[in-house]
Amino acid sequence: MALLITDDCINCDMCPSECPNEAISMGAEIYQIDPSRCTECVGHYDEPSCVAVCPIECIEPDPAHKESLDALADKFAAMYA
């Protein structure tokens, strides 16, 4: 499933540069994750890099975009084909 940045985000600027899929950008008030580009770092790392660097742990699974590990791997393959 894609990830979601909650309203607890403090705009620390850590996550955008860590995202290998360039899925994180500034929204109206806080950073946001594009679910069409988020693979939870499947194909790149063992864990989501944005979650690893977030100092306040405000990045969580997005219940509106549930995807299996296989679906995330397929999305990665399609983006980098």
Taking all Cα atoms into account, the compactness measure Rg is 12 Å
CATH topology tier name: Alpha-Beta Plaits
Q: Which ranges are low-confidence, i.e. pLDDT below 50, for 5 or more consecutive residues?
A: none
Please give the largest β-sheet: 2 strands, antiparallel
CATH C-level name:
Alpha Beta
- Largest sheet: spatial strand order: 1-4
Portion in strands: 5-15%
Integer tally of domains: 1
Please give a structural write-up.
The longest helix is centred in the C-terminal third of the chain and has 11 residues, at 69-79. The radius of gyration is 12 Å and the shape is globular. Strand 2 and strand 3 form a beta hairpin. The chain has three helices and four strands, in the order βαββαβα. It has one domain (3-79): Alpha-Beta Plaits (2-Layer Sandwich), CATH 3.30.70. A two-stranded antiparallel sheet has the order 1-4. A two-stranded antiparallel ribbon has the order 2-3. It has helices at 15-18, 49-53, 69-79, and strands at residues 3-5, 24-26, 31-33, 59-61. With 81 residues, the chain is of the alpha+beta class. The mean pLDDT is 97. Residues 1-29, 31-64 form the 4Fe-4S ferredoxin-type domain. It comes from Marisediminitalea aggregata. Keywords: 4Fe-4S, Electron transport, Iron, Iron-sulfur, Metal-binding, Transport.
